[in-house]
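Lecture 7 notes: from sequence to structure.
We start with the chain below.
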Amino acid sequence: MISLSTLLNPPKGLPLLDILLISLILGMLHGATPDEHTWPITFSYAIGKYSTKGGMKAGFLFSLGFTIQRAFLTTLGFIGLAEIYQKYNLDGPVYLVVGVVMGVAGAYILRGRYLHLPIDKLLKSEHHSEKTGGVELHDVPLKMTVVHGLIAGFGFGAYASIITFVLAPQVPSVFYAPLPGVFFGIGTMIMQILFGALFGNILRAKKLSEAEISYIARKTAGRVLYYGGIIFVIAGLLIIVFPIIDNFAIPTGNPIPNLNAIDIGFLLVILVVGLIGISSIIYGIREASKISKNDKAKIMKL
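Predicted structure tokens for the same chain:
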């Protein structure tokens, strides 16, 4: 049985199987705890698909891009090129880019266009839309989750430090170097698929029509991505200009990373998933109710 202390402070001289097992468990902890690079994205796309299958697909695709980047990161860790993370704070730039991509995806869902950027052509996606109560709704572009995962993987925290600077250098050769990142990504993927399924079914808990659920889901996904993206951009710019902000942390006494302190990352999760996400669902339900009442009124007049 591997203790929490061993997971968070792995000893040297570990065999390859132990390295991969620890990487997998760390990935599961990463995916299960409130992380600003995973939860806001998975929540947005999963709820936009409003089903178990759609939510699981959102979690899988996001984690796929994330896993590819983590494999690259642990390879850098083995050959010593990941030292850039110890010299420079990349949180600000990563938040900024993640926020821009979130905003782009949110704008497409809400308005049917990628902020005048030809990303839909790049991804070879078509514009799918439908109307509910006269309101045009645009499909949630799940392909974008892979892009989110690739970008979010450049974020660096306690879990990334362990697999990059402690576990990756211990593998037998450079050919094995991507494996800690791959297993970490798989662990994250397992939990994100589970959470994606949960998020995707939130709206099913209320007795709503299929059209109402579709409207609320897409509106919520678009708003969380669009306005959450703005918050990420602001956070990124503030950290770039005032790096000390990234050091803000109020200890909680919990030793598990992502739960050990109330910091900028934790606050981003609360703001985007908690505040914007929940308020968007409530507001969307009210909007859908008004649309349904108007439709019923029109039918009665006929």
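Points to note: The first strand starts at residue 129 and ends at 132. Confidence is low (pLDDT under 50) at residues 114-128, 298-302.
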